[in-house]
Structures are given as C-alpha cells and as structure tokens.
Amino acid sequence: MKNYKIYSILLSVFILGGCSDSWLEPKPLSFYTPENTYIDAEGFEAALFACEGVMHEEYNGDGCAILTEMIQSDICVEGTTDKAGPQMDMDKSLLPDANLNNMDYTRVGWYWINAYKAIKYANIIIARIDEVTFANETIRNSILGQAYFHRAYWYYKLVHQFGDVPFLEGELTEPKVDFYSHDRWSILERMKKDLDFAYIHVPELVDRGRVSKSACGTLLMKINICLGFNDEAIKIGQDIVAKHPLMTERFTINKSKPNTNLMHDLHSVEAKLDMTNTEGLMYIVSYPNVTGSLSSQLMRNTLPRIVGVSTPDGMTGIVFTNNVEPKYEINTIYGRGIGRARITNYYQYTLWTEKERNDLRGVYNRDSWKSPADMWYNDPALKNKGNIYYGQHLVKNPAMSVEDSVRAWYQWPHFKLFVPDPVSSSWYWGGETPMYIYRTAEVYLLMGEAYYWKNQPAQVAEMLNIVRARAGADPLTTADISIASIVDERARELYYEENRHLELTRIAFTFAKTGKTCEYFGHTYSLENISGLGGAGANVKQTGYNFWYDWVVEKNNFYNKGVSHRWAEYKISVHHMLWPVPASAINANTGGVINQNIGYPGAEKNLPPLKVEL
Prior knowledge:
The chain is mostly helical. Helices cover 41% and strands 3% of the residues. The protein has 23 helices and six strands. It has helices spanning 2-18, 34-37, 41-59, 66-71, 90-93, 108-128, 137-161, 184-201, 213-227, 230-243, 262-266, 269-273, 298-302, 345-350, 380-384, 402-408, 414-417, 440-453, 457-471, 483-494, 500-514, 547-555, 583-588, and strands spanning 76-78, 280-284, 341-343, 369-370, 412-413, 435-439. The chain has a two-stranded antiparallel sheet with strand order 1-3. Strands 2-6 form a two-stranded antiparallel sheet. Strands 4-5 form a two-stranded antiparallel ribbon. α3 runs antiparallel to α6 (108-128) and α18 (440-453) runs antiparallel to α20 (483-494). The protein is globular.
C-alpha cells in the first residue's frame, strides 16, 4: 500500500510538471519544472513512476489500448456491434485522418501519443543523469538503466506498430516541428546497445512493479531475436529461468477454493501480490480495495454481453441486480461484459487440440473456461410468471441476429479474466489488480523461437514442452515443430499479456529480413514489399506479402470471410500489418517529414529514413 501512495503522489507531481498538450512539446503547468524537480534521485524516481503509469494505462480501464493489439490479430475482433465506427472494416476505419484514439473506434493513436510521452519522460533522465550527484555509481547506473528500459520498451512497440518513426535522442526543451523518421532497424540496434547496459546495471531484486534485471533481459531477448542475435537471446533466457522458475505447485489462498486449479492461482490478484511468486518478471501494479484507483475493467472489456440474451420464448432473461436468488447470481461468479474484444474461433476452439485435452489453460477444462451456457436465466420476473426457463442455463437462440451472436455468445478464459472489485457497486466489470508484463513462461517461449530461427527443432520442442508440461498438455515432438507451434503456444499462454498484433508483426519482419521460408504457408517474404504495393490499389488481400496478414486471415474466422452485420463487414488488408501514422502528427511537423506507412494516403511524400547513431 505504501508503494501505491508514493506512486500516486509522484505521478501527480510529474504530470503536473511535464504534461503536454501536443505529442512532443513539454509545457510545464506548475512550479514542478525540470529545473527544480530533476535535481536528485527522488526527482528521477518521479519520472520513472510516470513511465510506469503509461504502462499501467495500456492494460486498464474501459476500452483500454491493449484491446486494439488483440483485435488487430488472430485471437479477437471488435465485438461492439451496436454502432458504426469501431475497428471492423479496416479498409475504412484505419486511415491516418480517422479518429484513432477513441475507445469507440480504435486506440491505434493512443500508442503513438503515449509511447512518445513515456519516451519523453525517459529521455529527461537520460539527458540529465550526469547533472545530479548520486550516493554511488551503482544507484546512478540503475536509474539510467531503468530509463533505457522504458525508452526501449516503447520504441520496441512503435517500430512494430508504425515501422520507421522519429527517434528522440535527448530532452526537448522547446517546441520542435522538424522531426524526421528513422530506420526501424537502426532504432532496434540502438535499443540493444542501451539494454545491454541496463541488463548489467539494473538490480534483480526490486519492488513489485519496478523494472528488474530480468525485465530488461526479456525485452533484450526480443530485440536480439529481431536482429538475429539468437544465441545471445538464448543465453539471457537461460540466466533468467535459472533465477525465476515456473510456478508448478499450487499457491496462495486460492488453492483451497473449489473448481480452481494452478492457472487460477497463477493469474489471481493474490498471486500477483505474492512475493513468493518466482515467475513474474515485470508487473504493472494496482492494489485492490483502494478507492479511486484505475480499475482493470477486464471483464467488461472481454466477456460477452449476455444482458441482451432473451429466453427461447422471447422474454428478458438476465438481470444484474441485488434481488436475484443467490444460487442464480452471476455478478460475483462471472462478471458482466460488453464484448469489446470478441474471442475468435481460433482461440476458443481450434487452438485446443487432442494434445491439449488435459491442458489447464484450455477449453476442455470447464473450471478454466466459461461460456454463456454456464449462466442462468435469473430475472425474478420470470419466476413470478412461472416461466419454465427460470433457473435454466442459457441457450443460444437459433434466431439470434449476427450482431447479438458476435457480441453475446462466445467462450472466455475465466481463470485469466476474473477480477473482483469489492469497493465498487459495479465491481462485476473488473476491479484493481496487478498484471504481468513479462513472465518466465514467455522467456521459455522466446528461447524456443530463437532455436527455431537457428533451425534446431528438437530444442524448440524442449522449450515449449516445459511450458506445456506445467499446464498439463501433451508434449510436442520434433515433427510437430513449425512457426505455427510457437505462435499457437504464445496464444495459449499469453492471452491479455502479450501485444498480440505486435508479436505477430515481429515474426513477420524476421521472416522478411532473414529470407527464411515459412514452412507453414510455403512462402518466402521480403522487406521490399512487406506492406504490399501501396498506391491506389492499397487494399490488397493477397497472401505472400507478410506473415502477419497470412496468419491472421488463416486463423481469424471473421476477417475477409464475408462476415458482416448492419454496420460493417470485417476486413483487413496486407498493409494493415503496420498502422497509419496519425495525420495530425504529420501535418503539425511543418519543418520536417514524418513518413506515412505504405498503403495509406500520404505515403507518396515519404523520404528515405535517417539512421540512428550507435
């Protein structure tokens, strides 16, 4: 609790002192200016807290940004079918001058704005680190390493979401309108250099929610894989898993609860607060029972909107009120969703094969997964009228409209998404909880991927099987290994943890850079046309340009399948692998050129990107 209060105070101080109306222009709004804030280690801690605050916002709140990362992938689509505008037909909704930062449309623009906000905070520390006297060099290097981590964390996202982007080297002390885009590969090379430093100097033992050595190492692994340094990635991964073993035995108070298992333990609020949890490497922190803190709204964002499901005879079937019979109560058992991120058939069905029959993470385990059919028609009015469906489990009405079917009828991983909220009258939306950013399980999967790029399938299977064994899945053989087995395992393990679109894009760039033939599709990709041909025919729906498009179209049962409702048809194109740079950022940059991605209006004005100096 102490850490939470310090976080709140310092974050408020920092935002007042350095918040900005524009995406790259600092405008101090109080006496907390850089000159009297960044004069000691405590001032720099305020900047680090502000960076952590941006990380927290990505995963929490109604319509939070990570939903866009999920929707632009294989595991989810936009489920709010009651209005026009949300990201369904990307050919129409994903344009540079669209409303790109609105929960009712898309949060693509949130990443552009907030990545640079966090980068600005980190750059202040990096630029001023030698203007402050520290108690010793260890403290100085630890703070600098954490700043390097935060800058790399957001640039890692930007170069996989937007490609070539402006690289900000130092602190901005005056308005600047002459930015130029930098080559994404050189940005990654610079981030590797910075993280090499951070991995040495950031300590392993830190307070929950702070940057640790292993967090730096996990991000460094990803960047090493991007750049082809697979042996380095494996070595770092081996060091991390030696210090942070998987949680393989039941723990926390949840282990005595009926109808739960190890996955419930691992992903519970209690587990993420439990200091004996060896698996968590990086967290965003939020404390339950703290009034006024930002609630996760996990269940609201991800669960189906069952409130609209009627009985087979057309009566109102579901209510979320206090006068429901306890045995038919839904609120505190499941939560209440509105279907913002609608799970695809790939994630709720085809991903779980016979080899996952005993997988604690999968749909065969009905303690771990739930569906509307697990709930009841509970409206007291039904009982009063003697309706035969009162107290019966929900059934999908054959006459249910496409809009209602998309939004109201799908399964979900209950063990990952249930978050109580005891201090709110509407707690069934999802309360406060810490969340994992990096876990040991992902480190094993990254090592497996590094072995894949080294053409060592036996070692890939070994790494994936460590994670699978903990979950109870059958082991994979060398013959089972392909890029699909890696991508599938990430989906099984990292739902609502990884940036799914981003990680698929990372793999797409690696295929294109290495020229390695994708054995799953039989395609060899190239950096030259990774976003398609561009120009007037930008909305290309032809496979073979990039792995992201091929995979999403193959696995997602909505995009480019003719699935439509009264508001939109679900469509994506090749160039949507990279998002549009907001037109507002390009237009305000009157003294320079920020490139637009191929396939979007404005790309014809691009210049060759600059290279970041190492």
